[in-house]
Design brief:
The termini are far apart. The strands form 2 sheets. Strands 1-2-3-6 form a 4-stranded antiparallel β-sheet. The protein contains 4 helices and 8 strands; from the N terminus they run H-H-H-E-E-E-H-E-E-E-E-E. It is of the alpha+beta class. A hairpin with a 2-residue loop joins strand 1 and strand 2.
Length: 178
């Protein structure tokens, strides 16, 4: 008897869900992915972001052109198996330059003592790092290189983070782009 009541309850609940769910309804995660944010969307804010905002205060101070966008896959700096920073490469069609970008993750930064950061754009063609910047004893979250005249070369952004008291830095590179 009890199992009959449970079956009737389950069928009634299922019927209610079907009746209350409109045909063609969209839910989070269903449907096409949104278009990437355009320049006008980014320009609305000058805050630094994990994705990289060429309109941020530090990006502007480094001379990053505001049409810059990420090229290639992100590299991840890890320490003890945990990701502590991201390294990305950006390209500006308007300025015909590449830039390196490093973002220190909150999960590391919030509890860390000051650390050292190094960032640059590695040219595979010249076998050297260009636009290199080093900041020591800092708690910065965002770092940009200046523009590098490497748009016609194979490049990758390269970055390091050395926590206080650790003799060697952890490092990563973004995907090689040609």
């Amino acid at each position: 008897m009890r199992s009959t009541r449970l079956r009737k309850f389950a069928l009634a609940a299922a019927a209610t869900v079907l009746v209350l769910t409109p045909a063609g309804a969209a839910y989070a995660g269903s449907g096409p992915a949104p278009e990437p944010a355009g320049k006008s969307d980014r320009a609305a804010t000058t805050a630094p972001t994990a994705q990289g905002n060429p309109e941020s205060k530090r990006a502007r101070a480094a001379g990053v052109c505001d049409d810059a966008y990420q090229i290639g896959a992100t590299g991840y700096i890890k320490r003890g198996g945990a990701t502590i920073a991201s390294v990305k490469q950006f390209y500006s069609k308007e300025c015909n330059e590449n830039y390196g970008y490093l973002w220190v993750w909150d999960s590391f930064r919030n509890g860390a003592e000051p650390y050292d950061l190094n960032l640059g754009v590695f040219s595979y063609d010249r076998d050297m790092v260009l636009g290199e910047i080093t900041i020591s004893d800092t708690k910065l979250q965002e770092l940009w290189t200046t523009g590098t005249d490497t748009a016609a070369e194979c490049t990758a952004a390269v970055g390091t983070l050395r926590p206080e008291g650790v003799p060697l830095p952890a490092q990563a590179a973004s995907e090689k782009r040609c």
